Amino acid sequence: MGTGWFKNAIVYHILIDRFAGYTKPQRWDRPEFIGGNLRGIIDKLGYIRDLGANTIWLSPFCETSAYHGYHVTDFFKVDPHFGTLDDLNELIGKAHAAGIKIIADFVPNHCSREHRFFKAAQADRTSDYFPWFTFKKWPRKYLCFLSFSEIPKLNLQYPPARRHIIDAAKYWLSLGIDGFRLDHCIGPTHDFWQDFQQQIKADYPDCVLIGEAWLMGIRFRELNTINVRHKYRIWLRGQAPEALYKDYIGELDGVLDFKCRLIMEELAHGKIDRDAALAKCQKHIGRFPPDFYLATFLDNHDMDRFLFISGQDTEKLKQAAGVQFSLPGPKIIYYGTETGLTQEKTVWDIPANGDLQARRPMDWENQDKELLELYKKLIPETSRCFIKS
Fold it and tell me: Which three-class secondary structure state does DSSP give residue 377?
């Protein structure tokens, strides 16, 4: 089968802590766990299938020090806030039985400073784990994810660290995970991704590997944490994301398509109409091989929701969804977009944890039914679930 299945994927993007399984949260606007879990997703599989999605993208579920899961403290364990290994196995099994595949958000570039390996390296320079990280001045200064000291960068050029991450990926695939959304893929080196892809595909040829390749918003002093070709030239010229994407052809199966998202922002702000947006997206996608998947999306957990940036204009959201579903390739729906979930403030105007605005809990009571029905109609019948073999 290979990765051809992903070409027609309708991906439902879930932030586990904010989707289902919690009691009604009082303070969702704090960077804290509110109780969303894998059991809640199991209970909502009928909703996801009825929507028409044939793939679920789960936010990181590994043991973590943060509600969103991107601060990993153990790459081989399910975080108890989200449930148990049995819960994950049950979700995978029931999703597959319903014709739905599961993609896991995988974080290879960094870990939490609460990870026992980093704590050991920070406490003792002779520790076996000292070479797993890059200390500029031990023990306080080290490479991290951009400028966020709470998530130190892994030294994936060190063979034991690289092996640990690749083994972790293989472990989750052995349970039935169908692929990965690879967080911050611009952090590790290209030779890491070549090695990663070769080892993963040798055992799991049908596994899909989709990278998050995105340089916008990164400051010059943070480029030393990035490993992409010609990064200084790309940064200085402010080149569009295509320059990054093309470097991953042959290494990954595709990338998240931030370029189409930028075009959708023009539609949201009334700078172009639906037809112009469609033409620009088609021209952009046409520059890439058909087997290199550009997964389109209107919004995600790191940026303002489309409905908010359009001025809460539901008609523009409907137009944008129509453009997205007129394009070839996989399509991603961020949880709640299909029901009109929005926000009150931009993520960019809040000094700390502004992204919580785009991570409101799913509202299961107050939903835009007309919008939901439109999404159901947009999804072709042939894409509504994968044929079980």
Answer: helix
